[in-house]
Amino acid sequence: MLKHPKLHIDVQQRYAPLRFSVPFIILFVLSAFLYIVLATSCKQSPVEAVKIHRFDKVLFDTPVSQLPQTIAQRRNEFSTDLLNLQPENPEFMQMLQGFVQDPTMRDIYRIADSVFGDMQPEAEGLGDALNRAEKLCPTIRYDKVYTFLSGTFNYDMRVGCNSHELIISLDQYILPYTERYNYFNNPLYLVLQSRREYLLADCMTAIARQHIAIPQDREMSLLDYMISEGKAIYFAQQTLPNAPDSILVRYTTQQLDWMEQNEEHVWSYLLQTKLLFETDYMRFHNLIDDAPKTNAFRDSSPRTTDFIGWHIVSRFMKNTGLSMQQLFEETDAQKILNQSNYRPK
Quick count: other Cβ atoms within 10 Å of Cβ 8? Predict the structure, then answer.
């Protein structure tokens, strides 16, 4: 701790010309106290980083012969419904040891570990986002995050979650670095979306989908899908306020530019074709599925209705001032559309 040098000054003589009245001194003291209180209250306490349990690191950094003992010893750390661990099962352990010894999987782990390292940026980013999430919706509380390698390169398996835990498949976020394996036969549009930059937004949208109520009394219409996905993107935006829009919607910057320039055109198409309330999934799946583009439009972005659903939900929330919990619980998509007063830019 730094110490100030003593000041050799006669205090009484130094301040002799000043004459303060008692009320002035009291006012000064109170003002100083108020300033200290306000300054202290305005400081945000640092958000504690989330602990990320690296199951992949334990698997691949442990000698194969010691895996059964290590998994048994650390079973409590990785005790979750999201991981099916059976160290007492010889067949399971034989399969796990074969998985870890596979040369390709070892190379995949090497790539993943070099890309992510200790995952401190993700730990801090998730800590901040989950703190915001809990304030927006108190029922949301995630206390454990795990990572693993799926070995399947299934785009839909990026992030899994239940009511209070997350599991991240790290190999879904390293595809751009797997050219030697021909990107495991994934199309380029998926490779471009399988990068580290998308991980935090994927976590937050996965959490949102766990809490968004789905209509149970009718078949889902295109508008239902639009609003549901719009809620997830809106939630990610609120919990990751510094994330670029392209990351939130899982677009490249070029795809985002196209969507911003053609939002009115896409909306007009939906109205003219009367697809908003269509419940036959086969008639509109291309509007919501991941793909290089949306077939209805030339050189377009994919998932065009996700983008519009997000804008509808954003305007609905601005107009109504509802809480995040109320948004998640509202299943009347037409009501959300009507009260949003949505008009494309």
Answer: 5
Angle 230-174-210 (CA atoms, 0-180°, nearest 5)?
30
**256-290 pLDDT, tens digit each:** 999 999 999 999 999 999 999 999 999 999 999 99
**In 3-state terms, what secondary structure has residue 147?**
strand
Enumerate helices (H) and strands (E) in the chain, giving the number of each.
Answer: 16, 4
Q: Which residue has the tokens 């000054």?
A: 9
Residue (of 341, 322, 128) closest to 231 by Cα position: 322
Residue 250 CB burial class (10 angstroms; 0-12, 13-18, ≥19)? buried
Verdict on whether the full-model pTM lies above 0.70: yes
Given the structure tokens 């010889």, which residue do they identify?
Answer: 90
Cα(135)–Cα(163) distance, rounded to whole angstroms? 16
Q: 3-class SS at 329?
A: helix
